[in-house]
Amino acid sequence: MKTTTRLRQLLAGREIVIAPGAYDAITARLIEHAGFPVVYMTGAGTAASLGYPDFGLVTMTEMVANVATLARSVHIPIIADADTGYGNELNVTRTVREYESRGVAGIHIEDQVAPKRCGHLDGKEIIPADEYVAKIRAAVAARRDQDFLIIARTDARAVAGLDEAIARANAAIDAGADMAFVEAVQTMEELQAVPVRVKGHCLLNVVRGGKTPDVDFGAAQSMGYRLAILPSLLIVATTEACTSVLRKVKETNAPPSSAGRMPVAERFRRMGSDEWTALATKFRDAAAPKAAE
């Protein structure tokens, strides 16, 4: 089954779909190994993996290259950040085609002015609503696989208020978007209002330390959200774990104890070593001469 079709099936189910954020092949494989049904490629995490803050410094080519690595590393659907679409309707058209050709199941495109910034930072700017809707129309028209998911993200809440954000989300749905992503709502009341007022499926962005109140997935499902992404989950965990272990090595002048740690073989297994080990002998065994009868 195509990953695009699988994603559609998941979103049509009864339970909210949870997609932790990956920024490289290691984190994507760990998400799949943990049993999650979808990987989300985080733009902020991708930028961090290249040594940049989430200030719109990463190009479409770099984002597509990263998602191609993720897509060949896992078997589950991938939803990817496509920022602003990297320009006007022509750029959006190419963006959709590039992501789709890499095996991605869906993307989201936002209405920030380029260069954009993290949706949970201050100082955002947005483009006029008619320009945003035109981009969504272009994205919908550009896909070759009708199951490829187009998610319309709006950052208008921080700039023009919730009413404008809802209006933009509904205009994007009317233009053919499959799902709305109202970014950085700021109160529990707003969180509850979005799925009620938006005339289509809604995505919830769960950012540690962000502007949106913390909510568990059961409550989010009850509110009407169909998809929850966790872009910062693993990048924060990795940063904190690496900072801690490096500090400990620096302070103790000794490597960490191996006791209780994941064995080397298990680390490789999570990166697909069993599959590659089987391939190492498969073709030689097949070519071996049969014993004389």
Structural write-up:
By secondary structure, the protein is α/β, with parallel strands linked by helices. The chain has one domain: Phosphoenolpyruvate-binding domains (TIM Barrel), CATH 3.20.20.60. The chain contains 13 helices and 8 strands. The protein has helices at residues 3-11, 25-33, 43-49, 60-73, 89-101, 129-142, 156-160, 162-174, 188-197, 217-223, 233-252, 264-269, 273-287, and strands spanning 17-22, 39-41, 78-81, 106-109, 149-154, 179-182, 201-205, 227-230. Strands 1-2-3-4-5-6-7-8 form an 8-stranded parallel β-barrel, surrounded by 9 helices. α5 links the parallel β3 (78-81) and β4 (106-109). The longest helix is centred in the C-terminal third of the chain and has 20 residues, at 233-252.
Task: Provide the fold topology.
Layout: H1 3-11, E1 17-22, H2 25-33, E2 39-41, H3 43-49, H4 60-73, E3 78-81, H5 89-101, E4 106-109, H6 129-142, E5 149-154, H7 156-160, H8 162-174, E6 179-182, H9 188-197, E7 201-205, H10 217-223, E8 227-230, H11 233-252, H12 264-269, H13 273-287
Parallel strand pairs: 1-2, 1-8, 2-3, 3-4, 4-5, 5-6, 6-7, 7-8
